[in-house]
């Protein structure tokens, strides 16, 4: 499909400015030339990290996941450590390193970028950058006042089974685990 150059936002009407998101109603020109309104949620983005306790070369290394209380999800869910920038322009690798240490108490000796994902492109511009951390070293855990979580060490294969069985449903965590399984851990290597 060829997209004309004049497609996109014509106008923005702010509705709410919050700590995590900004909401607006945008007037948009669509690819067919028609114009309509869309609700839009602006988000700063985030980094998430899969911490590997062993070596990525192992067939089934241990990893760290967190079980975190999430109000919007209605309870406790499984996740990889993640978070948003503390300041505008904070480098994504810095965000990943900081969040890993704050949420798990471990620092990454090696941090490898994996990919990035749009969480829900139907209404938000949120992009999460996925990372894999290895060569972990003890650090200092420091949770925010609204974070309630426990760190759980488990075999990578167990986490993949939890994805398959619907125990891990968090989008960024599913994407990170499956990416690592497909391309990095236990000999998983994509072929060209």
Order of helices and strands: EEEEEEEHEEEEEHH
Figure out the total of helices.
3
Q: Estimate the strand proportion.
A: 35-45%
What is the CATH first-level class name of the largest domain? Answer: Alpha Beta
Helical residue percent band: 10-25%
Plain-language structure description:
The mean pLDDT is 93. 18% of the residues lie in helices and 41% in strands. Strand 9 (110-118) and strand 10 (127-134) form a beta hairpin. The chain has two domains: 8-42; 44-187, Nucleoside Triphosphate Pyrophosphohydrolase. It has 192 residues and is α+β, with helices and mostly antiparallel strands. The radius of gyration is 19 Å and the shape is globular. This is GDP-mannose pyrophosphatase. It comes from Gaopeijia maritima. Belongs to the Nudix hydrolase family. NudK subfamily. Residues 41-176 form the Nudix hydrolase domain.
Concise overview:
It is built from 3 helices and 12 strands.
Descriptive key words:
192 residues, alpha+beta, Nucleoside Triphosphate Pyrophosphohydrolase, 2 domains, 4-stranded mixed β-sheet, 3 helices, 12 strands, 18% helix, globular
Write the layout of secondary structure elements.
Elements (H helix, E strand, L loop, with lengths): L7 E10 L3 E9 L5 E9 L2 E6 L10 E9 L4 E5 L2 E2 L8 H13 L1 E2 L2 E9 L8 E8 L2 E2 L10 E7 H9 L6 H13 L9
């Amino acid at each position: 499909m060829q997209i004309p150059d004049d497609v996109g936002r014509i106008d923005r009407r702010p509705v709410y400015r919050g700590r995590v998101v900004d909401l607006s109603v945008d007037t948009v020109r669509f690819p067919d030339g028609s114009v309509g309104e869309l609700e839009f949620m602006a988000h700063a983005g985030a980094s998430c990290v899969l911490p590997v306790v062993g070596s990525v070369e192992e067939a089934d290394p241990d990893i760290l996941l967190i079980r975190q209380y999430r109000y919007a999800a209605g309870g406790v869910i499984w996740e990889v450590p993640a978070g948003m920038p503390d300041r505008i322009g904070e480098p994504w690798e810095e965000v990943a390193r900081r969040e890993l240490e704050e949420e798990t108490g471990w620092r990454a000796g090696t941090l490898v970028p994996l990919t990035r994902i749009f969480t829900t492109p139907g209404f938000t511009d949120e992009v999460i950058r996925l990372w894999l951390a290895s060569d972990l070293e003890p650090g200092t855990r420091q949770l925010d006042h609204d974070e309630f979580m426990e760190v759980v060490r488990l075999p990578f294969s167990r986490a993949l089974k939890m994805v398959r069985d619907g125990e891990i449903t968090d989008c960024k965590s599913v994407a990170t685990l499956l990416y690592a399984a497909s391309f990095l851990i236990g000999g998983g290597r994509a072929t060209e």
